[in-house]
Amino acid sequence: MTESSPAQTASTPSDQGRHPADTGPPASSGGWGGLFSRQFAAQASILAGGVALYAMNLYFTAALLPSIVEDIGGARYYAWVATGFLISAVISAMLVSRLLARLGPSRAYLAGFLVFAGGAGLTAASPSIEVLIVGRVVQGLGGGLMAGLGYAVIRTALPERLWTRAAGLVSAMWGVGTLVGPSLGGLFAELGLWRGAYLLLLAAAVVLAVLARRSLPGPSGTGRATEPLPLASLLLLTLAAATFSISSTVPRGWATVLCIVLGLALLAGFVLAERGGAATVLPKHTYRRGNHLKWIYLTVAVYCTGVMTETFIPLFGQELGGLSPLAAGFLGATVSVGWTSAQLFSVNMGSERARELAIRCGPAVLTAGLLAYGLLQTGSASGGRVLLWALVLVAGGTGIGIAFPHLSVTAMRSTDDEAEGAKAAAGLNTTQLIAFSVSSALAGTLVSIGGDSTLDGARYMVFGLGALTVFGTVTAAMSLRRGRAEAR
């Protein structure tokens, strides 16, 4: 399919959710075979590849940073390598729906991949940590676009019968990035080739850019004019992301608490600006009374809170379980293993009742896994105890996997308006990025409360974040109740 593909015609409200190729009985063409058929394999690869590059890059850099600092110096700016990437990704993620409306899927993806590639090239060539941070900021701008487009383009690139599996595939790439990133980054670090690692990212982004240009549709020419940028919302959300990121870099204590409180206040200001603004980051119907989209986003945020435990699990594995860095890294990926594996089965759920049950139970399963992991913490853990850690974390991750694809599709189906539907899908990624920023800061603060005791820090973090994931059982139930009310 080229840029002049008939897929461009599937953009009117009356045809919403339909695709020119959406013919034949769903049972015969809506499975994994349909998604990876010759007709849709390129589109599926682009959607998955963009998110995989983004997710892998996060963990990739964490593994490489010690080698980078040893080579070019700049240890005091260590945290800003990740902070710069995250903040710029949040900004660009909020522009996905507008860029998509103006350029269409093909050119929007082309822009995202090429900006990411440019940032990777600058990072690879960096003579100092300051230049490297600039390269990471540029990478973040492209990465935020790639990650957001992975959800938003599902509606226009694929027929509705494939939406659930495509959403599951895109979501699973976060788990794949968690698995591949640390091991691949560690390999390049062992070989002393950290610059080559970013050249590999550059090459992958260029290949996907060419594939996107050839395989995805261009502008439909039928959408409504792009609304103005929501500058107040963008500013408040960017400041909130920056504040939460800074909270993990300041000395622990009142400075950290102040940053978190200020970040929460800025998020509240963002919501107020969105509710009263003519132009918004999230779909306008998110803030309407009785609409269930807000509850979907909050449930997604809860899942991201659970995932952020992976940041510190390798540390606990080394200091409490006596694991090697490599083994501890794989322990840190166990939540994502459960997430990714469960999604492959969850997307096959055929009945509406089963999908609702998955959405309702997901947060409870995640919370149970985290609490079990916290209760099993002990100093000088035996091999058997470490194995139990891995098993309960995998079990907790399945709570995310069984529900996430269905939440994603529910968000995409929350409106028949094409532009608002694309914004609803892109909002999933924006929600994830903001939730990662907030929960990362909270996790670091909770660990610091433990002081010099790694065991106390582990318990504070796991039980603290677990208390937040309990809230997901409420938001999940509300999303289902509101959805049924609207259906009537």
Structural write-up:
Helix 3 packs parallel to helix 8, helix 5 crosses helix 18 and helix 10 packs antiparallel against helix 11. The two termini are 38 Å apart. The N terminus and C terminus are likely disordered. This protein is 76% helix and 0% strand. With 488 residues, it is an all-alpha fold. It is built from 19 helices and no strands.
Question: Summary?
Answer:
This protein is mainly α and 488 residues long. It has 19 helices and no strands.
Strand content: under 5%
**Major beta sheet summary:** none
Order of helices and strands: HHHHHHHHHHHHHHHHHHH
Which structural class should the secondary elements be placed in? Answer: mainly alpha
Mean of residue pLDDT?
80
The number of distinct helices, counting runs of at least 4 residues, comes to: 19
- Uncertain segments of ≥5 residues (pLDDT<50)? 1-28, 482-488
Provide the gyration radius in Å. 21 Å
* Gap from first CA to last CA: 38 Å
- What's the number of extended β-strand segments? 0
**Envelope shape:** globular
Helical content, roughly? over 70%
